[in-house]
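Notes to self after the Tuesday call (sharing in case useful).
The group wants a holo model before anyone commits to mutagenesis around the pocket. I volunteered. Ligand is NAP. Logging inputs and output together so the record is complete.
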Amino acid sequence: MNETSSKPILILGGTGKTGRRLADRLTARDLPVRIGSRSTIPAFGWENTATWGAALDGVGAVYISYYPDLAVPGAAETVGEFARLAMVSGVRRLVLLSGRGEPEAQRAEEMLKASGADWTILRCAWFAQNFSESFLLDPALADEVALPVGNVGEPFVDADDIADAAMAALTQPGHEHQLYELTGPRLLTFAEAIAEIARATGRNIRYTQISHAAFDAMLREQHVPAEFVGLLNELFTEVLDGRNSHLTDGVQRVLGRAPKDFTAYASETAATGIWSN
Ligand SMILES: NC(=O)c1ccc[n+]([C@@H]2O[C@H](COP(=O)([O-])OP(=O)(O)OC[C@H]3O[C@@H](n4cnc5c(N)ncnc54)[C@H](OP(=O)(O)O)[C@@H]3O)[C@@H](O)[C@H]2O)c1
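Result:
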């Protein structure tokens, strides 16, 4: 075991969709892990730079999952500042979770590269797990998913594939200075994705396209914080306009296998009972 692999890997967002899966994979291989989030001791907060040094102390590498989204103003600068501090702290190996077709996310990637780190970028499509571990779970449970997006194909990627890719990047040589664009194997519209979940659960879950104004009003009625309303509207306006409606070979390149299909995600997730109420 080299010096880097004997030190813990810091997983920022390590209790979230991809970070939790990565932590499970590393732990299963008896590799040391440090989770960085607001609920860990010591706590790590993106908005509180004073918490960063303790999180970085003595680690060999970092998985960077920014929250809430690299698309929010200032995220790129924050990631750049974090990467520079990591370098000063002697932590060169940084793996960034990024998003496709988001100018701000791509700016964060450039900031990471400019830090001089041994970087790897996982530039991801929409996560399938948004339907089961995020803001689309409640609408799915209520049998009515309403979003301001129509007939646009999105290659939903599974968080398991992202965690496998992060695991490979952090534990195997040869992934430094590589950008992997990770998508699933198939384009699905949101209506088709919901139909897959409906089939897997045996429930009558409907998908409805609504206007941006109606979406905005719905979120405010549900008391979603204003910054999330803005973020979600931006994602649905700017990213789901067809620019990402193509498949990539990123999963195949990093893992040497095909990505997981949405049908497998839907049936495995249905079997966990998360969509049963
Ligand atoms: N969701 C997608 O479809 C998608 C697609 C492409 C890229 N991405 C990127 O993926 C990243 C993560 O998004 P996600 O939706 O998957 O989130 P997530 O990882 O599921 O959940 C959030 C994680 O971040 C931590 N966290 C929350 N607020 C924090 C704060 N202020 N400071 C430090 N840690 C905080 C949470 O733990 P605590 O609550 O304990 O702090 C939790 O571990 C984003 O940068 C986004 O741009 C997402």
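Two things stood out.
The mean pLDDT is 95.
The first strand starts at residue 9 and ends at 12.
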